[in-house]
Structure formats: C-alpha cells, structure tokens
Amino acid sequence: MWLKPEEVLLKSALKLWVLERANRYFVLQRRRGYGEDGGGLAGLLMGTLDAVLDSTSKVAPFRILHQTPDSQVYWFIACGASREEITEHWDWLEHNVMKTLSVFDSNEDVTSFVQGKIRGLIAEEGKGSFIQEEDPEKFREAILKFEKCFGLAEQEKLVTYYSCSYWRGRVPCQGWLYLSTNFLSFYSFLLGAEIKLVISWDEISKLEKTSNVILTESIHVCSRGEDHYFSMFLHINETFLLMEQLANYAVRRLFDKETFESDLVLHDPLQITKRGLENRAHSEQFSAFFRLPKEETLQEVHECFLWVPFSHFNTLGKMCISENYVCFASQDGSLCSIIIPLREVIAVEKADPANKGVSISIKGKRAFRFTEVKDFEHLVAKLRIRSGTTSSPHHTASTEVATTSDSDNLVDYYEGQLMAGQKGGSSKTVSTEALMTVFHPQDADNLDSKMLKEKMKEQSWNILFVECGRGVSMFRTKKTRDLVLRGIPETLRGELWLLFSGAVNDMATNPGYYTELVEKSLGTCTLATDEIERDLRRSLPEHPAFQSDTGISALRRVLTAYAYRNPKIGYCQAMNILTSVLLLYAKEEEAFWLLVAVCERMLPDYFNRRIIGALVDQAVFEELIRDHLSQLTDHMTDMTFFSSVSLSWFLTLFISVLPIESAVSVIDCFFYDGIKAILQLGLAVLDYNMDKLLTCKDDAEAVTVLSRFFDSVTNKDSPLPQAVQQASNLNDTKSYHPKVDITDLIRESNEKYGDIRYEDVESMRCRNRLYVIQTLEVTTKQNVLRVVSQDVKFSPSDLEELYELFKKEHFLSCYWSANSPVLRHHDPSLPYLDQYRIDCQQFRVLYHLLSPWAHCANRDSLALWTFRLLDENADCLINFKEFACALDVMYNGSFIDKLKLLFKLHIPPAFTEVESLSPSKGDDLSKEELIHFSQLNVGKEKIDIQAYLKQWQDELLKKEENIKDLPRMNQFQFIQFSKTLYNLFHGDPEEELLYWAIATVTSLLLKMEEVGRRLQSPTSPAKSPASAADSSTGSQTMLKRDSAPEQTERRSVHSPRRDSQEWSFAFEQILASLLNEPALVRFFEKPLDIKAKVENAKTSQLKARTRV
C-alpha cells in the first residue's frame, strides 16, 4: 500500500528492520521477527509492539523507503502485508520511476518528484475507495491491518477503530477494536498469544456500559450466550454510541425489514461512515425532540440568545436549522423552545449588527430575535434563500417582537387548507367537524361547576396564547407543560394535539393528500379492510358517536386511508381504539395526520405484525421498575407479569383500561411528552398500588388489584355528559376502591418520576431492542427445531448447530449487497418454518461445507440437483426442514434411503443436463449458471392445492414411498448416475474394489436390459451378444474417463434426440444389482458423524462466503 511520504531516521530503526533489497534511491526492509528468520524472542517482541503501538509498523512487516545519496533522512513511502505485495510495489518503482530519476541534477528534485508521484498514486487509489475520514492516511493503514487480520470480504466496510483492552477472565489484553458494517472485531498479539475475535452484529443480544470493582467503566457485549468486556477507551461514550448504532442498523436490516426498507439513509451499507452515523444520531435526536418529520436532517447548530418578550430577558440556547425549520431550545431550566417553519417566514433581517442579531418575521405579525449568532450575516443570507424572502423596508418596522396574535389564525388557516383539498364531490365524503362537537355541543347557558372550571382552563390557555403566541411557532415553556398536566380544555384539545405531536407540519405540507387517499382507498378490498370492518363496531361502542353511521364512516375512512398509505403496517388491532378517540376531538383529516404521527414517529414499530416497538417499551418499563420500584421486583420473581399486564397500556395509551374522560388527559400528556409520559404514569400506577401488590400471592390476584384501581380512576372536572361517563364506568357501583382523580395521578407521576430524561429512554429503547428481537429469534428457532426434530435422526445439539449455520448463510448473503434479493426471503409474518429460506447459491455453499458427498468432482451438479429435488413448490427457495431432511438421509439414512436419494437426483424433476461452459473450470458452476439451472422447471409444475393437501396427508400418515412408484431411469441418466458413484468412491480406502464393483454392476445391468429388450421386441433388429458386450465395455470406458468436457462444448439444458429403442432402468433393478456387491453396501452403510463437518463449517463458513 502506498503511503503519504514521512521522514524516518534509518539509524534508529536498524535494530527493528532487516534489509532485503536496495538500490540508489530505494530500500526494501523486513520487520525483524517476520519471514525467513521468524519465531524466537525477536518475533514475539516485535509482534507485541506491532499490536500495541499505534504506528505504521503495526500494520505490515515490509516497507519501502526512499533515500538519496549522502543523506541521513529517509522517506517512508510504502508498506505491505506480504512479500508478494511489497515486491509488486518494488518492481513498479524499478520499472517506472528509476529511469526517470537519472535525469534530475539535484537530490532535492529527486525527492520532490518521488513525493509527488506517490501522492498522485494515493489520490488515484482513493477515487474508488470508501475512505471518508478525517485522517485518510491513518485510516488507510487501519483498513490494511483490518483486512490482513480478519480476511473478510473486500466489500466489508470499516467504519472506525479504537485502542482498548479485551478481558479474558481477569487478564486485560491490549489491542485494537474494529467496528465495521457487519462485524465487531478485536485483534491482540502479546508475547506470542494471539487473540482474534469476530462477532457479527446480528448475533449480539446485549450491549451496555457497565462498571464494577475491577472495571471502572467498560462495554459489555453478549453474543450467543458468551460475555465479552472491552475497557480502557479514550472516548467510551463515543465508542458505545457508534456500537449501538451499528448493532441497531444491522438488526433492523436483517430481522426487521418492514421498518428498514423505508429508511433510505442507511439502505446502502457501503455508504456508512463514522461521521455519517454521528450526523444521523444528531438528526434523529433533533427531529424527535421538536416532533418534526423524519425526513428532516440537522444541518447547522448555532449557540445564541433568544429574546423572550413575556419574560423580558435573553435566554441562552441552541438554534438548530434543518431544510425546512429553524428551531431553538434553551439550555437553562426554563425549558423554552420554539419551532419556526420556513413556510411561515415572511422576512429575515439583521436586527442588531453590533450584537450579531438575526430577526425572523412570520405570518401573524410575529417576530423572533436571536443575538450573538456566529457568522450571522451568512446565516441571514442562507435563510432568505431557503424561505424565499428578500430584505424589504416595510418589514423592518415589524422586527420588534410582537406578542399578540390572532387566536383564530391557526384554525382559519387549516380550515382553508382542508377546504382547498376538498373541492368537488369529495367534500361530501370527508367530515369537517370533530365528533365531540357534533354529538356533545357545549351549552353556553350551562354554568355548572364543571363548565365553570372548563371555562377557567380555556381562559388560562388564552392568556398563554397572548403571551407566547398561538400556532406552530408558539413559545413552549414550563407554564405550557403545567397547563397540559392539568388537562387541555375540550374545545382546544384537537388543535393542541395537532400542534404538540408535529402532525400540524405534515398536514400543512400535504394539502389535499388525505382527501386523495380517501378517494383511492374507497372500495378497495384487502385483508386490512376486512379486519377494519370487523373491528369498526368494537371501537368505543359505549360512545354515542360510534353508535351512528357518522362516526363509523369517519373511522372507516381514516383507517382505510392509512392502510392504503402504509401497507407495511396496514391495520393492526388497537389502531381502531386510538383513532376513535382522535376523531372525537379532531376533524377527520386532522385525526388521520395524528394517526400518522403516532404510528410512524411517536410509537415506532408498535403497529406491525410483531409489535416490536411495544415489546421494546415494555422492556424499558421493566428496567425502570427495577430502578425505581425495587420492592416490587424483589417480591415479583417473574418480571413477565409486568409485560403481560402493561401491553395494553402501551398499545392503547391507557384508553382500553381507563374511562374515556380520564384517558384523554393521558393522551394530552403523551402528545406533549411522548412515551415518557406513559412510562411515568405506569410507574405511578404501580407505586400507588404497591402495598396491595406486595400482598398478592399470584399474578391473577395482582391483575384484579390493578383492574379495580383503573375502574376507580375518575376525572372530576370532565365536562363530558354523564351518559358517556357512566357508560365507561359501569362497574363503579360494585367497586369499593377509593376514587382517584386522573389529574392528581398525572401530577404525582411527574413529581416522582419527572427526572426520567428523554435521552435515557431512547438509549434504553435502543439497548432493549437487541434483546427483544433476539428473544423473538430464539422463539422462532425453538419452534422450528421442535417441528424438524420429529423427522430427522440428528441429535438436538447437532440440529441446533445446523439451524444456526443455515440462518447464518442467509445473513451472509445480505451483508455486502445494497439491495440483496435474499432480504426478501425473510418474512416474519410467515410460519416459523418459512421465515428463513435459502436459494440455490446459498444451498451450494452449505452443501460444500456439510455434505459427506461434497468431495465429488461434480459436487456443483449434485448440489444443483439436490436443490431442485427439495424445491417441490418451484419457488427457487427451500426452508430448513427440507435442508435438514436431505442431510439426514446422507448421514443417517439406510443403504436403500441413500441409494433412493441418489436415484432421484438423476431423474426429473431434479435432474437437468449440464454441459461445460469453460473447460478450465471443470464441473464447477458459476453463480449465474447455478441460479439459471435452478430455475428451469424441467417436467415440474407448481403444486396445486389438491396435490399439496395429499402430500400433507401422506406426511401425517408417515406413508413410506413405494419404490415401484419411482419412474425409470433412461440410459443417459444412468450414465450420469454411474459417474456420480465413481466420484463418490474417490479417496475411499476400498476405492479400487468399489470401482470394480460398480463396473460389474454397470455391465450386468446393460446386459440384462439388452436381453430384456430383445425378448420384448422379437421382431426388431437386435444386436448380437458380441455387440452388446462391446456396448457395455464402451459404456464402462465412458464412465471411467475424466468428465472434463471438450473445448467446444457449452453448458446448456437440452433434450438430445434419443434412440426410440433406448434402454431404461427401474430402481428395483439397480438396487438388486448393487446389493450383490458387499463393498458397495459397506460404503453406504458406513456410519457418518456430522459433528466434525459442523465444527469445520462454523470456522470456514465466513471464508467460504467471502470467496464466493
């Protein structure tokens, strides 16, 4: 590898390097302890230094120096991991550079030319490389060491590397940790002890930062039940964050493709860089904090001051800028934040040049003033371009911050947007009113105590709107949170849900989108629409709004439109309950966008087939219980109780367990604080019932305690009609539990658990996601093994190892492809057996590694025919049961079973004629040829349903296949069958005896068939016995000859014209003939153990896939 020229003093390196070659201008050296003189104490010391020290010598044992006569300074220009590599560089210098150097007059010119040439070579190499790091030279060295140590595929992208210690027991081993797109790798070499560790990210079930008496701070990695500890990092938080991101990326890509396919940022593993991952983490945190669309990426961050008009002071914070938004969050405890959509901006001005001020004016006569902004002039120009505004004199007067706003501005704006999207007949299909205003209009003359409290709430919010503004750009402060905790007024609930969830931005940027979706989705008939129709009447059936066609129709339109928008999710249970509540307080289009915000941003992965997101948050909840309610965890030995009882809390945001008037207060907090509000309330519920739960003897009793508690929760200030409240509290009269007000419960949850930070919740989500998905994978494996074990004779441990190899081969095909078709083969919604399937190329790799017949010269053809035999439904994929059953016959089958398998491989539908494309490759098939032949359905059609049912019935009855039902084998197929037998015997101790046996059987069969044919067709011309003998002899000669094809032959599948009188053989004939040869019987009945093959496959599978 060419390196950026660096000065070295040769004298200081003489004891570490040995001279190999030299000329007038260059020196080739070998690291002492490597090569011919390797070993001994010098080798151990040099290897240890190379592994520990961060120097170029740690990379390669060979190097080339540039020298000039009479100079003590040398220039390090190249290094190599092998003698062949460094020799190639040396030869290039002698042939391309040495002749040119003779024309220079001075040594300075020579050195300058060599340096320029080497830099040019590096630049040329870098054009197609993945290197995008801050220090390209150092990173190139790390890549070389990474490739040399681990031998992974060239496409494996090194993201970054760190110096650290790996703990083997209580002994730390200093070395280097390499983080790549698919693997965590560690290498250490200390005094002859080499440690090489490669863990794929998809095998990691636990990744966390830990500390104990010995390790003050370390990173704990659990993979396949083994614990690994890494410590002594210079920046452990940075390292852990990158490891977490890479593990989460790999798990999503391989196990959870439903959410990954929509993620374009990380869709190509070859484009992942350390800087890119860091930027992504910041962007995700930015968009989640401000509830912006996921597409927004953080582009700039400026530390500055924001003038807060109602408090009359400047607050310090950070201005965050993305493509379409300017946001600000304060750094002090006031929790002041704002969101300014650039679509609302009408002017951007330099407010106070002396204080580096920027003023941003928006619609509604409001402006925001930022000061002490670094490079404020450039920022002003950039924001003007993005917002499409220019500096105008009439805006200057309005740059003073106006705190008044039209309270109806937001409502009027969105009503205009809604009507704009509903021109024509579509306005008849979409409701423009919240159901609560239709079914429970507020009576202005009713001034009972509840309505008076409601009016006071509205007045408090109106005062806040006057101070902080109204709409998407309002100031959000501690006062805003306090008002949310007290409960949002009924009349403002829909507007503020839309605002706090960020759905207001989606709706504003997509006018008319919902109406268009409704028109497209109406009348569609899918599995999702069938499920929606089934659940419509189960959605808040106690509420009058959903006892009428108005509410049911609106619910149907919203759910159907969302299923049409996002078919990956479609429709899942609990979505109907949530949407029903949204429709009560929001207009139909607003409810749709609220549903989008919940399903796609606020509760990611909740509403898919495996509800992974809900399971992850349950795991987070369990972790918080252990931290905050340790008494409960000490009493409850099984934490799964909390998972089972809390699932509905998370899926329905407590709507399914609380009365409707109380549940809406929980949703108020959820839209403001996100999942943190649900976690806090869950802890408060358990804390409130702590004493009763501690006395419970079993889970059923604990469930009863919690059910009675939820029945007793009320909202004493709710203005909802009594009919609705009674409907949701039918059991109140039977409950002796004291009443608990939801407002008090929410306030208590914030006082006790408000210190839970959003960043900590996200970190716990990421950490527990690995555990949840690996747990689901273990469940899948257990179910598959239970089914397959009934049909094979492998031991449970061997079968489990085979499953891991099968699954690993599936993943290895996904590692290095940006758009791997293999990813489509993994579908978690399928039955357990069909979740992982492999194609012919993957099967060939496993066949080479595991089959006892893999030593055959025609092993590729055997693998192809075996795959075609197993692929009964002709979809070019096989599952683990089919794979394991084939291996079981090869290893544990009787003589007849193995012979029957070989016979089937040489007749249709498995058999297909394969001729050679390249004589130099012999019987080997390229990947393209293998896939091509595997897809040819020669005499094979898709199985119809009746045939499938019959096959299933036969399997249940364990019906033995009648050998008389097998079709006859024609002469050409028999020749190929005999060739395969010859190949199988190669290398066997009785090889010569087996060859004679098969020759005898072949000759006998040919003679028998000739006699039989003559007897059946006496009128036809027949060969004389001599000619028959000649024919059989010729056939044996053909079988024994090397199967390498001629130059002019090509691989193809064809049906050559056969003689109408060609011979054919029944399986019984072949079986009877082979049984007469004891050597053949001994060969096939010889016991075979798969353990050695499995162990070898575990170590060489990755290398085999790398070669492919």
Beta percentage is 5-15%
Shape: globular
What gap, in angstroms, lies between the N and C termini?
25 Å
Q: Report the total helices.
A: 44
Provide the spatial order of strands within the biggest beta sheet.
9-8-7-6-12-11-10
Query: What gyration radius follows from the Cα positions, in whole Å?
Result: 37 Å
Broad structural category: alpha+beta
Unreliable parts: 54-58, 128-132, 392-428, 726-735, 916-921, 938-943, 1020-1060
| Total beta-strand segments | 25
The residue-averaged pLDDT reads: 81
Query: What is the helical fraction, as a range of percent?
Result: 40-55%
Largest sheet composition: 7 strands, antiparallel
Keywords:
13% strand; alpha+beta; 1108 residues; seven-stranded antiparallel β-sheet
What does this structure look like?
The chain is α+β, with helices and mostly antiparallel strands and 1108 residues long. It is built from 44 helices and 25 strands. It has a seven-stranded antiparallel sheet with strand order 9-8-7-6-12-11-10. Strands 16-15-14-13-19-18-17 form a seven-stranded antiparallel sheet, with helices on one face. The chain is globular and about 110 Å long. The two termini are 25 Å apart. Keywords: Cytoplasm, GTPase activation, Repeat. Interacts (via domain Rab-GAP TBC) with RAB11B (in GTP-bound form). One of its GO terms (cellular component) is cytosol.
